[in-house]
Amino acid sequence: MTGRRASARTAGAAASGRTPGRRPGGPDTRGEILRAARESFAGKGFSGTSIRAVAREAGVDAALVHHYFDSKDELFIESMALPIDPRQVAARVLTGPREELGHRIVTTFLGVWESPDGQQRMKAILRSVVSSDEVARLMREGITQMIIAPVAETLGVPDAKLRVSLVATQLIGIAMTRYLIELDPVASTPVAELVDRIAPVTQHYLTN
């Protein structure tokens, strides 16, 4: 009896053009997988995210995730398409008076975090950097090549890379405190006030 019921379900699904189980791939399937992956990486980091969990959230089989993405690494890279091109960041902060460099860096950085889509992606990246050596390596190499090196070259001092790296510690600290830990009053302070308070510190690292 059980076998006849299963056969009937399969036949009914075939007649209606559907397959039993999770939904098959469709025009929006890849996008749904990326959405589910971004949410998982943002909430759990790289190590806490699995292909199966992403598939379950997207409502598809894990095999379908593998159809679109060869590995979790590839899924991470695709889903974390940065909300802003790092090369554009470097160009933006380098355009203008040298004495306002710290202000432009902080304004640009917080501007990325303050957009809803940017914040979700940046949270995922930051959590994954903390939990995965491989993700940390990828981000370190990318940031060094596309942001730290170009900014350091404009300073014209022997310890330029150290100076820019110290700025990075300031920015990562504010991101952790405001957006991940959500520690008040930093988390609730208006962005303009944060920029006014942090910019002089970053400027000091760069030019003093």
From TrEMBL:
The lineage of its organism: Bacteria, Bacillati, Actinomycetota, Actinomycetes, Propionibacteriales. This is TetR family transcriptional regulator. Residues 1-30 are annotated as: Disordered. Signal peptide: none annotated. Residues 27-87 form the HTH tetR-type domain. InterPro entries: Homeodomain-like_sf, HTH-type_TetR-like_transc_reg, HTH_TetR, Tet_transcr_reg_TetR-rel_C_sf, TetR_C_16. Pfam families: TetR_C_16, TetR_N. The keyword Oxidoreductase does not apply. It comes from Kribbella alba. Keywords: DNA-binding. Residues 50-69 bind DNA. The keyword Lyase does not apply. Residues 1-19 have a biased composition (Low complexity).
